[in-house]
Amino acid sequence: MKTGDKYILLEKMSPLQKEALEDPEKFWGEQAKCLDWEKTWSKVLDWDYPNAEWFVGGKLNACYNCVDRHIKGNRRNKAAIIWEGEDGSCEVLTYYELYRQVNMFANVLQNLGVEKGDVVAIYMPMMTEAVVAMLACARIGAIHNTVFSGFSSEALSERINNSKAKVLVSTNTLYRRGKKIDLKGIVDKSALNCNSLNNVIYVPRGDEDIKLSFGRDYLWDELMAGARSRVEPEIMDSNDPLFILYTSGTTGSPKGVVHATGGYLTYATKTMDWTWGIEDTDVFWCTADIGWITGHSYVVYGPLSLGSTIVIYEGAIDYPEPDRLWKIIEKHGVTILYTAPTAIRMLMKYGEKWVKNHDLSTLRLLGTVGEPINPRAWKWYYSVVGDKNCPICDCYWQTETGGHVIYPPNGIQTVPLKPGSASFAGVGIEADIVDKDGKSVPPNTKGNLIIKKPWPGMLKGLWNDPERYKASYWNKIPGVFATSDYATKDDDGYIWILGRADEVLNVAGHRIGTAELEHELVSNPMVAESAVIGKPDEVKGEVPVAFVTLNPEYVGRPKEELKKELIQYIRDTMGPIAIPSIIFFVSKMPKTRSGKIMRRILKKLVVGEEIGDISTLEDTTSVDEIKQQLKGSK
Ligand code: ATP
Ligand code: MG
C-alpha cells in the first residue's frame, strides 16, 4: 500500500466508476436515459443537505417504464412473471398480460376513489396479484405501502395507521408449509383499529366462502370483471413518492422509508444491470419477499424495468422436501439466483445430496444479501450450488439505499472475489470507512461505513418524520450518510461488512465486534448459526455471551463437551479476551421475518429488561426457549 485509499480506489476503478465520481451530475444525467421520460429534467440534482431532489422537473411514470414500454417492442409476448405455488401449480404472465391486469386494477383503484398521492397498503404473500397491485398504484400515482404477509394484525395496523392508507389489498388465505393461514382473520382484526381505511380488496384463494363486510370488502375478481382495460399512466414528478416501506426493525422500531419515482427507478434499473449484466434470455429469481426492499428493487422494479423474466415462488424453499429450491431452478431454467445467507445456511444443513440430484447448469450467477455471509456458506454456495462456475455477488445495501451500494459489478467488470467481502463500492457510490468524527481510517481498521455524496437511490426521507430522518442518517457523523454498519477495508481495497455499528463490545478495554466473534464461531464445523451480545460486567465492563445453534450431527453430544471445544477454538482463533462468558445452545434464533437475528432481543433477555417492539419477530417460541435456558442458568 503506498498512499492510502486513493491509490487503491483508482487502481480498481472501472472507467465507468471514474466517470461517475469525476462528474456525478453529468454521469447520472446520462444514466437516467435508461428510462422513458415524459419530460426531461431541468437539473440533475438539487442537494439541499440533507435533502436531495433528483432529476428536478423531470416527469415519468414507473409503471409505464416497467410494463408499457416493453409491450410496444418485441417483449410483448415474453414471460414477465413465472409464478409457482407451493402446491406445484404454475402460472406464466407475459408482459402483455401483465399490462392488461395492471391497467384493469388501476381502474379498480380509481373506482374506489384512490387518487394520486393516496396510500394503498398491500398485505399479500408472493402472488402475481401483489406485483400487479404495486404497479397499478404506480400507474395512477398512488403510493404503495407493502407489508410483509407474515406480520401480525398489530404490525399491520401500525403500518396502515402510520401511512394513513385508504385501501388495503390482501387475500383470504395464505399457504405455507402445506398449512392454510387465515389472512382475512388477521386483516379483519387489524382493520378495526384503522380509521383511515375505507376498503379492503381480497384476491380469493381456495374454495371457501369469504365473508365480506358490506360496503368495506370486495373481491378482486368481481371488481376486475367490471374494470376498464385501459388507464392512462399518471404523469408523475420525478420527486413524487413511489412507495413507503418500513425497515426490518432489526435494531429498533421500523422506519417508514420513502423512495421517490425518478431517482429510485433509475438506480434500481442501473444496479440491476451493473450487478448482473442482465441479458434478454435471463430467468432471474430473487427469493426475497415483496414485503422487503429486495422484493421491491430486485423482484419488481429493477427486473421489470429492464424487461426481464422473473420467478416468484409462493411458499417455503424447503417444502415439501429440502430440495424445493433446486427443483424450481431446474424446472424454470433459472439463470441467476439471488437469496440470503440464512437461506443458504439452512439448505447447507440438509446436505449436498439434495442439490446434486438436480441439473442446475442453467445458473450463471449467484447472489446473496441481507447480512454478511460466512466463508463456509460462501464456499458451499460457490462449489456445490454453482459448481465453481458462477461468481457470487455479495450485495450490501439497505432499505434506505434503494439499490446495491457495495457489490461486485459483474455486468461491467470482473473482479476477483473474496468469500465474505461484498467487494467494492458500486458505480457512483463514494463510500468510505471513517471514525466517529468522519476521518478515514487506515486499511484493516474497523470503522463506520458512510456514503459521502447523495446518489439517486437514496431515500427521500422518512414518512412524516424529518427529524428522525436527520437523526438516523445525517447527524451521526457530520456531513455524510451513515449506514450504521461497521466495515473495514483490506490491503487490496475490498470492503468487509462487520455488522451493526452498535454491536461492538468493550471487554476490559478491548473492542470486540460481535460479528467478528460470530464469524469465528460459525467457522467451527459444529456451529450452524451464532449470535453474540454483550452483558454488563462489573470487572470487565462487558463480556460476550454467545447463542449457538448446532449442525444436526452434533445436536446429541453432551453440551459441556461442546462448550469446552468451542471455548478452546475461540481461544485459539481470537484469543482469550474474546471467550464468551456463557454459551447457550438453542434450537433456533429469534429472527426478523426477513431472516436477520434480532440481537437486541437476546440482549434484553440476558440483561433482564422488557424486550420491547417485537412486531417483526418471526417466531416467538425462540424467545420462550431462551427464557427457559436463562432461568436454568441463574
Ligand atoms: P432496521 O434498520 O429497522 O434495524 P434492517 O437494517 O435490518 O432494519 P434492512 O434495510 O432490510 O433493515 O437491512 C439492511 C441491513 O442489512 C444493512 O444495514 C446491513 O446491516 C445488512 N446487510 C444487508 N446486506 C448485507 C450484506 N451483503 N453483507 C452484510 N450485511 C448486509
Ligand atoms: Mg437498518
Sheet/helix structural class: alpha/beta
Hetero groups in this structure are: adenosine-5'-triphosphate, magnesium ion
Our estimate of the beta-strand percent is: 15-25%
Strand order of the largest sheet: 12-11-8-6-7-14-15-23
Radius of gyration over C-alpha positions, nearest whole angstrom: 24 Å
Written overview of the protein:
Helix content is 33%, strand content 23%. The longest helix has 17 residues, at 95-111. Strand 6, helix 6 and strand 7 (143-146) form a beta-alpha-beta unit. Helix 5 (95-111) crosses helix 6. With 634 residues, it is α/β, with parallel strands linked by helices. Bound molecules: adenosine-5'-triphosphate and magnesium ion. Magnesium ion binds next to loops. Residues 247, 398 line the site of magnesium ion. It is an enzyme of class 6 (ligase). Residues 16-66 form the Acetyl-coenzyme A synthetase N-terminal domain. InterPro entries: Ac_CoA_lig, ACAS_N, AMP-bd_C, AMP-bd_C_sf, AMP-binding_CS, AMP-dep_synth/lig_dom, ANL_N_sf. Residues 73-463 form the AMP-dependent synthetase/ligase domain.
